[in-house]
Amino acid sequence: MVKSYDVIVAGAGPAGAAAAAVLAGQKLSVALLDRAEHPRHKLCGGLLTAKSVEALARVFGLHLSDLAARPSPFDGCGGGGLFHETSQYLFLHQGQELLRGAAAEPFRFVDRPAFDALLVRMAVARGAEYLPGRAVEACDAASGLVRLCGGEELSGRFVIGADGANSVTRRALGMNGYDRAAWRRNLAAAIEVELPVGAGPGQFPRQVSVPELHVGSPQAGYGWVFPGPRGPKVGICGLRRNDRDGRDFGAIFLDFLRLLGVAAPESVALRGHPLPYGNALARPACGRLLLAGDAGGFVEPLFGEGIFYALATGAHAASATLCGLRNGEEACAREYERLLARTVRPELVWSNRLRWLLFAAMRRLGAAPIRGFVNCAPAALAEMVHGRRSFRLLQKKTWEWGEGVGG
């Protein structure tokens, strides 16, 4: 027997949890599926910008005190993983410092397993039915039928696909707004490890309390060194097709570890994943299906910020679904695109333009272009990262939210 819901949300990361929380808060029947069970490991630097903190308040009613790494005020099951904050930051090129700055607002860092689990608990508290261990095998955008691995079938009046960069639900778009070749061209590789501090093999040689952004390797990407809950988080992300000498991405990462002073980096167990990197879908809604977060390619392609864009597109997809339940599929798609066009899409377009301009300039001129960029107006650039200014010529930025999202 096929079980029916108002909405099926595939994927219980921040995008899926945001969508489920908004919809369940409107007293709809919502199934929140995930192939794993929370808390689960997640490769991510865990950076929360100011706009992410505000999105958490609007979508979930969560505040910084709720995210602290202590028992949750909601059910006593561990907090939201907030473990560090700082206003300072570093930009470097091939190990050489370009800028040591301080933003007006702090950057905050969360442990993703605890953070994601809290968001799921919030969605469940509003009435969503959480179904872990359910991997989606196929989705029909026309009917809203979702088939799970193992043969179980669920039916939704609408389906929100928030199942990551390797999304299964995205396949249901067919050729409607989904150019698979273009998607693959702009899919970055990312590797991240969390290292203990020490002088031994595979250990990081120093404590890290200030986030570092490294440019220059890979050639079309960046590296990072962030504070971590158990040790520094070190990673790189980039388009493999743009590395001119064709090196293996793992070899590029090992060179990055050597640059940072890690002894015997080949002893480090590497973990990688794909990351959308300038391939936000032009038409992320088709029939009864909407895509949010990484599944729709909604990652900021200059600095790689994903958490905010997952929260925002998950909430926007939910708001559009509320419209669609009243007015039909076409109205749903129009409302989703309206919200995207007024909020996240301009940021993705302009950050992508800026990225290619900077990368092209660095290939020809070395560190000078990025040095000039980060030093020209550091306060305004920090405001851009925090969402106070737009990637579009540093204009002042406000964020619009749709139906069902709290104030």
What percent of residues are in strands? 15-25%
**Span from first to last CA?**
40 Å
Largest sheet: 8 strands, mixed
CATH superfamily of the largest domain: FAD/NAD(P)-binding domain
Record field, number of beta strands: 16
Name the CATH class of the largest domain: Alpha Beta
Q: Count of helices?
A: 11
Overview of this structure, please?
This protein is α/β, with parallel strands linked by helices and 407 residues long. The chain has two domains: 263 residues, 3-Layer(bba) Sandwich (FAD/NAD(P)-binding domain); 87 residues, D-Amino Acid Oxidase, subunit A, domain 2 (D-Amino Acid Oxidase, Chain A, domain 2). 32% of the residues lie in helices and 24% in strands. It is built from eleven helices and 16 strands. Strand 12 and strand 13 form a beta hairpin. The chain is globular.
Describe this structure in a few short sentences:
By secondary structure, this protein is of the alpha/beta class. It contains 11 helices and 16 strands.
Helices and strands, with pairings:
Layout: E1 3-10, H1 14-24, E2 30-34, E3 47-48, H2 50-60, H3 64-67, E4 82-93, E5 96-110, H4 112-125, E6 129-132, E7 136-140, E8 145-148, E9 153-161, H5 180-185, E10 187-194, E11 212-215, E12 221-226, E13 233-238, H6 249-259, E14 272-276, E15 285-286, E16 289-291, H7 307-327, H8 329-342, H9 344-365, H10 368-376, H11 378-386
Parallel strand pairs: 1-2, 1-9, 2-6, 4-11, 9-16
Antiparallel strand pairs: 3-5, 4-5, 7-8, 8-9, 10-13, 10-14, 11-12, 12-13, 15-16
